[in-house]
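User: Hi! I have a protein structure encoded as tokens and I'd like to know what sequence might fold into it. I'm fairly new to this, so please keep things simple.
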């Protein structure tokens, strides 16, 4: 069975085609600048690459180019789209109504539209990708896999906000959590690596990248997470502020005359380590600048590390007993220095990093032999998780 996985952003689209007999990736690609001058598709098959630079006015045009690449005479990996059994879509927000991956129908799409109010940047693009596939290959089954689904096992004590209860009843204002597909993959893979049933493990999964979140996994299920109603809550991130006193927003809106939408844009796109450093949202740029003495770059990194440590410690207290901490995401997988700084001086909590083992970008145990809490690097694979869910639903 071959499964196509599509992840649509507002002006971009990532895809992978899996052969589920061995879960191998037949091809992968990226479409950039959809609806913008300079649209480009980059399609990769092993070490070979096809680049198409052509105007793509919308997601339907972009996905048509993806389909053309899949069956291309030289770079294609299938003879016909009939070989693709189903298409799995990453969808940001399913709220508390779509709590598991599901085959898409009109009712599902209506619920995805309903939660545009909480995912205004992502849900519309996810829907455009779904509807483009429906129009281009009618009758092909499409599956939605939600970023929020994995976190719906959280108890009310961790997902509720301390605001008048009527706002929860009327508007579903609560913590939903995101990166759920990644946290679920890392949880399952951690259990596999430790040769233990996930139900016997308490895990802290640490997904660090331009967008970052941490989840507390109790007996294999999500108990708490850092992101909230939207991906803005929680850690300091590349361009997102993370936690802050809500009065900061009302003060700036009164002082500067910002609208709610402008304030939202500032907190989501102009804050985080970019806002503090004034330099970049890329942590590699900040580390390089900090090494050269840039104090604001160093401050941004210190704030990021401090917030991660605060949540790791808090989740250890919530869980009571932690068996393993697993790092994932672009920073979590690739930055040995960040992992070390985040977990240094935690020997009293049973966490000891082995510097030699930590010098890796591969899947590995990086804790010392005498560390009570194991520490792992587990490169995430959200696309494979989406492909598995899609296959299981359409079989």
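Assistant: Happy to help. Inverse folding works backwards from shape to sequence: for each of the 395 positions I chose a residue that suits the local structure. Here it is:
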């Amino acid at each position: 069975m071959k499964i196509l996985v599509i992840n649509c952003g507002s002006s971009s689209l990532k895809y992978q085609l899996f052969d589920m007999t061995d879960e191998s990736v037949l091809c992968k690609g990226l479409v950039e600048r959809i609806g913008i001058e300079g649209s480009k598709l980059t399609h990769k098959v092993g070490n070979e690459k096809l680049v198409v630079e052509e105007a793509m006015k919308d997601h339907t045009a972009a996905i048509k180019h993806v389909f053309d690449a899949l069956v291309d005479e030289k770079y294609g990996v299938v003879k016909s789209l009939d070989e693709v059994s189903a298409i799995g879509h990453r969808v940001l927000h399913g709220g508390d109504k779509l709590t598991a991956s599901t085959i898409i129908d009109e009712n599902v799409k209506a619920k995805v539209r309903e939660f545009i109010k909480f995912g205004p940047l992502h849900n519309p693009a996810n829907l455009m990708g779904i509807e483009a596939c429906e129009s281009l290959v009618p009758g092909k089954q499409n599956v939605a896999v939600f970023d929020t689904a994995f976190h719906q096992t959280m108890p009310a004590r961790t997902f509720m906000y301390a605001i008048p209860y009527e706002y929860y009843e009327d508007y579903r204002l609560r913590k939903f959590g995101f990166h759920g597909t990644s946290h679920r993959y890392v949880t399952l893979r951690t259990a596999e690596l430790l040769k233990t049933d996930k139900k016997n493990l308490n895990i802290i999964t640490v997904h660090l990248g331009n967008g970052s979140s941490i989840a507390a996994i109790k007996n294999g299920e999500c108990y708490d997470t850092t992101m909230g109603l939207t991906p803005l809550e929680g850690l300091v991130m590349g361009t997102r502020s993370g936690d802050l006193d809500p009065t900061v927003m009302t003060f700036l809106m009164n002082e500067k005359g910002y609208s709610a939408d402008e304030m939202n844009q500032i907190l989501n796109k102009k804050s985080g380590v970019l806002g503090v450093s004034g330099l970049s949202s890329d942590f590699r740029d900040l580390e390089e600048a900090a090494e050269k003495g840039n104090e604001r770059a160093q401050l941004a990194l210190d704030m990021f590390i401090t917030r991660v440590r605060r949540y790791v410690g808090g989740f250890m207290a919530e869980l009571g007993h932690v068996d393993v901490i697993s790092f994932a995401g672009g920073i979590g997988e690739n930055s040995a220095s960040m992992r070390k700084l985040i977990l240094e001086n935690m020997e009293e909590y049973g966490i000891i990093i082995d510097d030699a083992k930590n010098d890796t970008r591969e899947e590995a145990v990086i804790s010392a032999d005498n560390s009570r809490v194991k520490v792992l690097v587990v490169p995430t694979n959200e696309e494979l998780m989406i492909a598995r869910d899609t296959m299981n639903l359409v079989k």
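A useful reference point when you look it over: The chain has a mean pLDDT of 97. Feel free to ask if any position seems puzzling.
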